Amino acid sequence: MFRSLCRTLLLFVFSMSIVAQSAMPGSQSILGFSTDSVQTQRGLEAKFDGYLKADNLRDWLKRLSARPHHLGSAYDKENAEFIAAQFKSWGYDTQIESFDVLFPTPKSRLVEMTAPEKYTMKLNEPALKEDATSGQQDEQLPTYNAYSVDGDVTGPLVYVNYGRPADYEELDRNGISVKGKVVISRYGGSWRGIKPKVAAEHGAIGCIIYSDPRDDGYYQGDVYPKGAYRNENGVQRGSVMDMPLYPGDPLTKGVGATKDAKRLDPKSAPTLTKIPVLPVSYGDALPLLKNLDGGVVPDAWRGSLPTTYHFGGRTPTVHMKLEFNWDIKPIYDVIAKMPGSERPDEWIMRGNHHDGWVNGADDPLSGQVAMMEEARGIAELAKTGWKPKRTIVYCAWDAEEEGLIGSTEWVETHADELRQKAAVYINTDTNGRGFLGMSGSHTLEKFINEVGKDVPDPQVKMSVWDRARARQIVDGTPQQRQEAMSRADLRIGALGSGSDYTPFLQHLGIASLNLGFGGENGGGSYHSIYDSYDHFTRFVDPGFAYGVAMAKVGGHSILRLANADTLPFEFTNFADTVSQYVGEVTRLTDTMRDETKTSNVMIANGMLKNVQDPTEIFIVPAQKENVPFLNFAPLQNALTKLQESSRAYQKASTGKRLPAAMQKTLDEILFKTERALTRTEGLPRRDWFRHQIYAPGFYTGYGVKTLPGVREAIEQRDWKEASEQITIVSKTIEGFAAEIDRATKLY
Amino acid sequence: MFRSLCRTLLLFVFSMSIVAQSAMPGSQSILGFSTDSVQTQRGLEAKFDGYLKADNLRDWLKRLSARPHHLGSAYDKENAEFIAAQFKSWGYDTQIESFDVLFPTPKSRLVEMTAPEKYTMKLNEPALKEDATSGQQDEQLPTYNAYSVDGDVTGPLVYVNYGRPADYEELDRNGISVKGKVVISRYGGSWRGIKPKVAAEHGAIGCIIYSDPRDDGYYQGDVYPKGAYRNENGVQRGSVMDMPLYPGDPLTKGVGATKDAKRLDPKSAPTLTKIPVLPVSYGDALPLLKNLDGGVVPDAWRGSLPTTYHFGGRTPTVHMKLEFNWDIKPIYDVIAKMPGSERPDEWIMRGNHHDGWVNGADDPLSGQVAMMEEARGIAELAKTGWKPKRTIVYCAWDAEEEGLIGSTEWVETHADELRQKAAVYINTDTNGRGFLGMSGSHTLEKFINEVGKDVPDPQVKMSVWDRARARQIVDGTPQQRQEAMSRADLRIGALGSGSDYTPFLQHLGIASLNLGFGGENGGGSYHSIYDSYDHFTRFVDPGFAYGVAMAKVGGHSILRLANADTLPFEFTNFADTVSQYVGEVTRLTDTMRDETKTSNVMIANGMLKNVQDPTEIFIVPAQKENVPFLNFAPLQNALTKLQESSRAYQKASTGKRLPAAMQKTLDEILFKTERALTRTEGLPRRDWFRHQIYAPGFYTGYGVKTLPGVREAIEQRDWKEASEQITIVSKTIEGFAAEIDRATKLY
Q: Which 3-state string (H, E, C) describes A104-145?
């Protein structure tokens, strides 16, 4: 009956909240602003909105995507100079900062099947008459994975699904070793650099990655040029450096890749792959897949090619020969500042990369042109006499595609200054039609929720926040639905990796957000020559309405952060989310304990073996060590402290305003709370990653691991390390709570 | 903590039960047998097992599948005569009973795409050199769906996924009507006859059904002849009569189709389709599917063909022209009896059909030859002087494929005698390598579990029951795992329809079981010319070991039922399962109530509309009437009575033996309990189906609906009927409990 009552109550809240939300825009308070400054700020935002023009986005996108502009290309430099010139012309104090970084490009690429039949891969994306820039073959980078090592290998082929550790456990159960063999993995399920890393750990000698049409092709929708999706020749280029170890130039870990920087020998750079790896189209993959021998793969491994998917292991034989030019190339970051009038040493930072793999209309220019229009709007405000309290810094990064290189090298170069001054970093990347996506530091969750509530959706009469919430309610899991219906704020995602927030958030502990619209911009142009102006304006954001919406979300965020009386950090939401993480890691050991016990019994009594088809190979896995009970008490106590401190700050600060002289002190305590979530020693085996709450997974790459020290130790069944990490992260959280207490004491 | 304790306890039970189960065979009691007769019975079963020879199964399968043997064919009659001759030669009192039934066969078949391009379907399964009987084209039935009406229709094509009612709701939301159009549905998700039925209800003028390789083709495994699965030319023939209305000859509902039976005019027969329908291969379907226009279908609708799946609605245009010979054809049921020595008027019945769509090696001959060897084994026992207490009746049915015609006509003809005498009916059909599947009346659950525990698996050193249980534990859902670990018996499935148990169980209320091995016999020969001796002996049960295992399970079942002192009905398991059904229908209204409320709110406040992509068509569905609270108290009270009566009988009967004179009275009460679960009025709108606990779903066909009167009324949102049906089924259950009480009083 309790359950039924709960539901009814929830429905009631839900019906009411529709009314409450729609009454919100324009009328309420703004986090960090005193009551008397709210109206001024809203006026400023309205004025800002009035400056924004979709045509600017269109013109810039066309111009910037007119030629291939990858790291080291002529047009990459031209674009940096063009962007810098715009910022300069709007009045920003603008610099181009250059670094010299390792950038391999293909000298030769060969993948061929030599038995049982002969097939040489085309490795070529053809020009299409429907796509004006697709024929610029002289300037296009060939299809390849950057930071693959050179290699000339021949061996039988094994299909490894997504190439994650769990996929190799499945191979083990089926008696298939990849030792001395070439693996073929489909894209998806992890950051692409994980695939050759795990393959090499298991003894593979080469790695092919292809785009299966199940995940990225005709299964999803009509293929280009009829529709938006990847056709049989489309290839996803991409970096395969071991980014979860450290991003940026592989030769200059932790320091800026300046002219004189001390560099590693490329041969010993730890983030290069251990085996040669190349991405291919599904057109090129099919002949090989058709020839795989051995058992049929499990259901979850099967893609959408018209063939039966097999493990392989003996057939076919594949020969890969890859050679690269191991060049050092210059990159160009554009840094544009508007100094703060009151608190110039508090930096509100904003960034989006400008380099693409080829023409890069969607990735990254859709975000870049929205950010430029946002910056222009703010510059227009400045022309009217308005000045930001805090310094605004716009960054157009180079070399993101190769491994967040432009942002990482810049952050590493300016680390000391950033530690002192950087209050918040807001990142964007690709942007398209659809729903507002929000991820980042949960101390900024309430802030960014408020911003979203005040920006109207371009297609539907409601705020972009209301539409994002509606989607969670209509299409979400029961849990998401319930939370979206009952919680005041939408829970923002945690950041793993995959764009330029990583050095800010995870290396230096600068509170960060990653924002972007999407979900109605489906397509398969990612990292191919077909990510073009023509593709973008047909399928991604035809009228640039979501580019303008992004400029509004970005602009309002920057204007609020720059103008607020007090920086809009909020800690009860953070505490709420951390309590979820603590619950997850605790339950994880319980689940693993039960599963291990059950699995060990089933192995011991022969049951697992006995249900297998005896005509097929099945290798019974070894029993696993039982999962001990870990002492989570320190973490639970730290969480309690965090919750108390968060509530105390909320209570102390609500409705009160500090004297102007103390605001700066308060600000500094607030924005440095995120620093307290880092440790100089970093995470086990990867000291570059210092954040103790958010990290990209060591074996997932893009995918975040929250409380990473504890969670990954548990996942790796290293109970000793898990216990140590519980102590470490508990202290970190306590330290963070102490910083909140310092802020509370100011009131 | 409760949860964690539960788990630990469960693991303990689990570890212990391994020991308990493996000690069971041979040593324990047998349900229905007094302690002193158990050893004799076990001796008999051991002797019986010794008679069984795999070579017999092989020889008969080869002989019976040597030529096409569908209803009305020369070889169908020859097979019936051959089977009858075998039974006769083993000493059974054997008859062939013949009926005359409506059987349409194709006169002409044409399906062509006329726009935007021209394609005429091949509608042909080619001969393969690897398959000796595949070239018998003169005798093969063409690929078609029996009981489709004639038609000549042209219209645009719409893809309707599996063609179930819910699929049309999805079409509605996407603004697509099938009115005046031809639909193409994939096989699966429901009994095939549902597809044209629901299509016609929505105004479609024609229906194409194809086998998508996702469900039945290369996605599953290598295709024939390389592997076992359906190749691009394979077609699933099959009946599309409206079997959930009534099975059997469409012209003689409820009565045997004897020479003089009163027959409906074929034009008014209600179980014929309303629109022309034809099955096709995926090779023939692909050109049409590639030309579908309109939006992309939802993820769950997409198959494995190398194309993007669209709804269609305007393109392509399809022309179907079908004409049939509407003949009356003779069918031949073989009925073989071995009279009981003590209780000849209690019939233990056993059946398997003998007709196939073409050569039918797997379907149905795999089950047929196992049953024949079982019958021969029992005849061998009889030669040693043993005689069954009760009469054993073996039945080899004709015309099952067209709609359970052979069994239905025979049951309808002999209804009065069967109501008096039939104690139990055990059905088999296809049989192959793998795991024992058990479904049927839950009053026989404990009985059939016991049988399974005493038959060794041919591949693994454990009983077939232990292996079935192991599979539920290893591969089952958490719920199945928990139940298999903690419950003494495996819960058997409920019977919907799809084989010859239907007239026995659901028309007359004769307790029935359906048994068969499978799960390691994957393949796609079903209802095609490739269901051949060659295919079967390569892929389905190469050594006939599972045919012999089936003969053991069937033989032990028949021997126990025929010999038991008391018929082995048991009611606490039945009560346990009914209590699950009652819980399900109760929760169903709760779930529907919540969903309706939430959905109505989302429709009313515009949220549902607002999350849709505005560039695509989306028709907001109408709000639904709120779900009232129904009075389930009568059902809950009846369930309580059932549970009490079951326990009382268990208590009264355990360890006790009635005087011989009363045994017969007890038997009759026991086997007629299942009659008490039927009502002469039948189910709403389908009076032929009289069972109140089990029925095939009106809109699923194969899939069972338990407590069908109540459940289907709720699903159809007919609250008045639901309340009426709650009263009816409650009285039925109370009547059943009263019968148990009668049995209890005999002790």
A: EEEEEEEEEEEECCCEECCCCCCCCCCCCCCCCCCCCCCCCE
How far apart, in whole angstroms, are the C-alpha atoms of residue A738 and residue A46? Answer: 39
Separation of alpha carbons B340 and B345, rounded Å: 8
Contact in structure between B147 and B239 (CB atoms under 8 Å): yes
Whole-number Å distance between alpha carbons of A65 and B393: 81
Contact A215, A187 (CB under 8 A): yes
Interface of B with A in 263-322 (CB under 8 A): 296, 302, 304-308
Tell me whether A524 touches chain B (CB under 8 Å).
Answer: no
| Chain A contact for B573 (CB, 8 A cutoff) | no
Write the pLDDT tens digit of every residue in A518-539.
999 989 999 999 999 999 999 9
* Distance of residue B535 Cα from the nearest chain A Cα, in angstroms: 17
Architecture per CATH, domain A2-98+348-563, reads as: 3-Layer(aba) Sandwich (3.40)
pLDDT in tens, A423-480: 999 999 999 999 999 999 999 999 999 999 999 999 999 999 999 999 999 999 999 9
**Helix locations, A296-421, DSSP H:** 367-383, 405-413, 415-421
**Chain B residues 247-266 with a CB less than 8 Å from chain A:** none
The predicted pLDDT at position B655 comes to 86
Q: Counting beta carbons within 10 angstroms of the beta carbon of residue A29, is it exposed (0 to 12), middle (13 to 18) or buried (19 or more)?
A: exposed
Low-confidence ranges of chain B (pLDDT < 70): 1-27
Considering CB atoms only, which of A222, A598, A610 is closest to B308? A222
Coil, helix or strand for B428?
Answer: strand
The class level of CATH for B102-328 reads alpha beta
Which of A471, A608, A610 has the highest number of chain B CBs within 10 A, making it the mutation to test binding with B?
A610
B680 in A contact zone (CB under 8 Å): no
- Indicate the pTM of the whole model: 0.95
Assess contact for B343 and B419: CB atoms under 8 A.
no
Residues A181 and A172: their CA atoms lie apart, in Å, by 14
Q: Which residues neighbour B245 within 8 Å (Cβ) at sequence distance 6 or greater?
A: B270, B271, B686, B688
Q: Which residues of A touch B296 (CB under 8 A)?
A: 220-222
Per the CB < 8 A criterion, the answer to whether A427 and A352 are in contact is: yes
Give the pLDDT band of residue A17 (cuts 50, 70, 90). Answer: very low
Other C-beta atoms within 10 Å of B374: how many? Answer: 29
Please give the class, per CATH, of domain A572-745.
mainly alpha
Q: Is the dihedral of CA A480, A481, A483, A487 positive or negative?
A: positive
Q: Dihedral of the CA atoms B240, B241, B243, B245 (nearest 10)?
A: 130
Q: What is the CA radius of gyration of chain B?
A: 26
Domain with CATH 1.20.930.40 in chain B: 572-745
Size of interface A-B (CB pairs under 8 A): 103
- B chain contacts of residue A460, beta-carbon cutoff 8 Å: 610, 614
Identify the sign of the CA torsion A522, A524, A525, A530. negative
What stretch(es) of chain B map to CATH 3.40.630.10? Answer: 26-99+331-458+493-563
DSSP category for residue B314: E
Q: Rounded mean pLDDT of chain A?
A: 95
**Residue B22: per-residue pLDDT:** 41
* In contact, B204 and B178? CB cutoff 8 Å: yes
Q: What type of residue is A171?
A: L
Fold of B26-99+331-458+493-563: Aminopeptidase (3.40.630)
pLDDT at A21: 44
- Under DSSP, is residue B413 helix (H, G, I), strand (E, B) or coil? helix
pLDDT band for position A27 (cuts 50, 70, 90): low
Share of chain A above pLDDT 70, in %: 96
What is the value of ipTM here, to two decimals?
0.94
